Amino acid sequence: MMVELPTDPDVLIVGGGPVGLTARALLERWGVRVLLVEKRRELSPFPRSRLVNVRSMEVFRQLGIAAGIADAAFAPKYGRIRFRDTLYDRDFASAAMVGVHAPVPESPVIGVVTSQDRLEPELLAAAETEARFGVELVGLAEDTDGGGVVASLVDHRSGAGAVVRARYVLAADGANSTVRQLLGIGTVGPGALGSFTTVVFDADLSRWAADQPAGVYVTAHGSLIPLYPEGGWAWFGATPGDAERADWVGLVTKALGAGTPVTAEVLRVQHWAMNAFVAERFRHGRILLAGDAAHAIPITGGLGMNIGVGDVHNLCWKLAGVLQGWAGPGLLETYEPERRPVAHETLRQAVANAQLVAKAQTLRRDQLRNGEAPSAPLELPWSERYFAQLGLVLGVNYRSTAVLTANGTASDRSVPPDRGTDYIPTTAPGHRLPHRWIAPDRSTLDTLGEWFTLLTPAPVHWQQQATPAWPLRIEHLPAEHTDPYDLGPHGALLVRPDGHIAARWHDRPQSDATVRATLAAIADAPVL
């Protein structure tokens, strides 16, 4: 028996987590026919990912769902990590999540602390294209003519099978990606870092948490996480040796502290592995990896889901261009050289975060072992801005043939994001367009969408550069922003649909065909 599925799609998305759902919404806005399949029978019932950073919220603002995500999230004051011996004790260290704890001038939005089971419904509702849960991919192969990918699917509700032929497959099916394994793509990096368990429980802990809110309380006996603004908690820590007989209530109570007269009611238990790797390749012909399928990032710093959102924001406009004919196949070849360096740098940062957290806990144990008072101050191994990571989040710098350098040539040298916590806005090609307010509640980032944007203080001088061959809009840049953007009175920035600057002209070019030639070079297409 064959399960009935939609007509063969342009793109088959494998995986219905935040990354796959974001890709579905982005591709729908481009008019691409999409089918999403997810082997789970429903959206995730577990909190899992916790942090939506400012860059991801900028993407969600573009999709029109940022406000809904923020409404269901915690207040900004929860954007902090607190270190305590137990929840009952005082902080011996803390760190703000910069860009979440309070607004930052570098972005029109603020990041949020929320739970994945609150985020995913918003993402699912952001598009109307077909999403089938309980349907698993079990096999795939490229057509012999190279024009598509044949995927074998199984519906776990009925046991029925189906064959779907898609022009491209976007694999966002997690760290244990079936697609990556079927393709035989290896990984590099530390690999499995350990086995962990999340225990979702109910308890009234407001007495010990309300006055000093946090998104995470790291204790000596595991971490405690408030799940929703209206209540609910989770504990996570290393999985005990005999997990089947573990006293989960006892483990949670130990993290709460002996002075906390609260009984935890355990609701759900989930075991999981913390992985740390980057795939050796992000592409195999017409099959592309994104999110945890391409890179597994340790949870410290909340970077994993967000880098996956960045992957598909980079990839979906390129898929649309190739599918719609205004870009050549070479544009897709820029996906891996642009995103793989970001994955390696993000993995490095997450491992460094984990090491600093462990160092803080070691310093605390040494402090107590030396007989110091529990209230004695602790010299932190980081600055207050360490966990800011805005240089990593907003400072991504692409170098590929889809970015033209100052002299008008393509750059194929990939570079990692800016290291460090500080983000320095720049309009150098390859960087994210810096946010500037150009009208009440309208950012320069709001000029972007399913098109290239030519941002200039002199739009009348650039109108002759417009062309129907590529999706292009010319937007007026108020004169007061020309100096911060390093533009002359007739200059312009050409910004890609993913918000990264493709080219910059300090002044008006001499040729009326300059923009057309630039778009052709970026899109791997002939000049029209």
List keywords for this structure.
single chain, 528 residues, alpha+beta, 24% helix, globular
Explain the overall architecture.
The protein is built from eleven helices and 25 strands. With 528 residues, it is of the alpha+beta class. The strands form six sheets. Strands 5-4-13-14-15-12-16-19 form an eight-stranded mixed beta sheet. Strands 7-2-1-11-18-17 form a six-stranded mixed beta sheet. A four-stranded mixed beta sheet has the order 23-22-24-25, with helices on one face. Helix 1 packs parallel to helix 4 and helix 8 runs antiparallel to helix 9. The longest helix is centred in the middle third of the chain and has 35 residues. The protein is globular and about 75 Å long. It starts with 10 loop residues before the first strand and ends in a 5-residue tail after the last helix.
Number of helices: 11
Strand content: 25-35%
Spatial separation of the terminal alpha carbons: 49 Å
Mean pLDDT: 89
Major sheet size, sense and barrel closure: 8 strands, mixed
Shape: globular
Structural class, please?
Answer: alpha+beta
Q: Radius of gyration over alpha carbons?
A: 24 Å
**Low confidence ranges:** none
- The neighbouring-strand order within the major sheet is 5-4-13-14-15-12-16-19
Tell me roughly what share of residues is in helical segments: 10-25%
How many DSSP E strands? 25
List the helices and strands and how they pair.
Blueprint: E1 11-14, H1 18-29, E2 34-38, E3 51-52, H2 54-62, H3 66-71, E4 80-84, E5 91-96, E6 112-113, H4 116-124, E7 130-133, E8 135-142, E9 149-155, E10 161-166, E11 168-171, H5 178-183, E12 187-202, H6 206-209, E13 216-219, E14 222-228, E15 231-238, H7 248-256, E16 265-279, E17 283-284, E18 287-289, E19 295-296, H8 304-324, H9 335-369, H10 390-393, E20 437-439, E21 442-443, E22 452-456, E23 472-476, E24 492-495, E25 501-505, H11 514-523
Parallel strand pairs: 1-2, 1-11, 2-7, 4-13, 11-18, 22-23
Antiparallel strand pairs: 3-6, 4-5, 8-9, 9-10, 12-15, 12-16, 13-14, 14-15, 16-19, 17-18, 20-21, 22-24, 24-25
